[in-house]
Amino acid sequence: MDLHLKIWRQKDRQTEGKLVDYNLKELNPHMSFLEMLDTLNEKLITEGKEPVEFDHDCREGICGQCGIMINGLAHGPLKHTTTCQLHLRSFKDGETVVIEPFRAEAFPVKKDLKVDRSAFDRIISSGGFVSVNTGQAPDATAIAITHQLAEEAFDSAACIGCGACVATCKNASAALFTSAKITHMVLLPQGKEERSERVLNMVKQMDHELFGHCSNTEACEVECPQGISVLNIARMNYEYNRALFFRKK
């Protein structure tokens, strides 16, 4: 199959970027989207041109590094799918595909399709952890919890931090990411001890990073490759208001 690509090229965050046209012919429809970008880069390198910079790592839908906008959609047209899990059979022969980086003030472009998502790391560093002594792993039955509670915590912990929720939100909100990290810890006994301090610090850091506010459009859940529920945002709001109510003056 043949594809016409319009790819965002930008030297660095200080330089103005633009969409550049590329044509690729005789592509295998079973190639992944990232393999197609690899093919393009091999072609560009052969021609003595600068290859397209883009994030990737595991290419198995686990690490969350491969996020880009494809025809205006985070990770492309398939639901609950990362960019690396997308294949060319999802496009038509001869189709024009527009490829851009995630757009958010908190995600500045580093080069081409590569953005700086370290704001997520700083949110985690502000409180997304449990302060316990390390050592030998405890017995699996030492802390009894129900199966349902474990499943709910795991559903929130499944967030891979790709940033699709931010990229697809009209306000560039990080509420879904932050709430998922808060929820999966507060549901489990180990995380309850620091629940108030954690939510106050993480929400404060989220605002400091210039992410927008959540306005409940639920677009984040729709585009999330892991299908993280917006109910996490409701729990974060509850935990935040609870922490404010019981905060020591």
Automatic annotation (TrEMBL):
What is a biological process (GO) this protein takes part in?
Answer: respiratory electron transport chain
- What Pfam families is this protein classified in? Fer2_3, Fer4_8
Entry cofactors: [2Fe-2S] cluster; [3Fe-4S] cluster
Residue stretches making up the 4Fe-4S ferredoxin-type domain: 150-180
- Tell me where the transmembrane regions lie: none
* Example GO molecular function: 2 iron, 2 sulfur cluster binding
List the PROSITE patterns hit by this protein, alphabetically: 2FE2S_FER_1 (PS00197), 4FE4S_FER_2 (PS51379)
What NCBIfam families does UniProt report for this protein, alphabetically?
A: PRK07570.1
Recorded family membership: Belongs to the succinate dehydrogenase/fumarate reductase iron-sulfur protein family.
Kindly provide the name given to this protein in its UniProt entry.
Answer: Succinate dehydrogenase/fumarate reductase, Fe-S protein subunit
Origin organism is Chryseobacterium populi
Q: What is the lineage of its organism?
A: Bacteria, Pseudomonadati, Bacteroidota, Flavobacteriia, Flavobacteriales
